[in-house]
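Researcher: I've got a protein sequence and the SMILES for 8-OXO-guanosine-5'-triphosphate. Could you write out the 3D structure of the bound complex as structure tokens? I'd like something to compare against our soaking experiments later this week.
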Amino acid sequence: MVEAKRPVDVAVGILLRPNGDVLLGQRPDGKPYAGYWEFPGGKVEPGEDILAALKREFVEELGIEVISAEEWCGVEYVYPHAHVRLHFFISREWRGEPQSLEGQAFAWQGQVAVTPLLPATIPLLEWLDQLRYARQAVNQSVEGPL
Ligand SMILES: Nc1nc2c([nH]c(=O)n2[C@@H]2O[C@H](COP(=O)(O)OP(=O)(O)OP(=O)(O)O)[C@@H](O)[C@H]2O)c(=O)[nH]1
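Model: Sure. Here is the predicted complex with 8-OXO-guanosine-5'-triphosphate in place.
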């Protein structure tokens, strides 16, 4: 009997600036889906806490220290190369400016315009817009003239 492959846990971080911009990175050569854009992160190691994995990946890939992050949502996706369970975190508090430590490109984006994006990440953009801009619209209407 062929046993189904267990999903691989992946910790993914969305750095959210006060103006709503988020940080994306481009997958470097040599990885599956090289050239595709994603939110930074990577695989959780056996026995590792997911938030600890997120912090480790941000140091390794971008030289950024994530000070705090809250788990936001989860997505499972089956690629030809892997079955992944993505744990998306939102962070508003970090230290340092992103550096391209793995030779990858990165970009701060308001409306996300970089393409192509990893397929499992595409639905996130709509949810992210609701989180970023629906709240701003409410704030604007509260702060508008009476
Ligand atoms: N970081 C990240 N990974 C994602 C996203 N969306 C998505 O499907 N993934 C998938 O999650 C997995 C992450 O694995 P990775 O290869 O980047 O992990 P890693 O840095 O630990 O790689 P390594 O195998 O070189 O150690 C990949 O299969 C990737 O396709 C995303 O938005 N960000």
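Model: The longest helix spans residues 122-143. Residues 70 and 89 are 5 Å apart (CA to CA).
Researcher: Great, I'll pass this along to the crystallography team.
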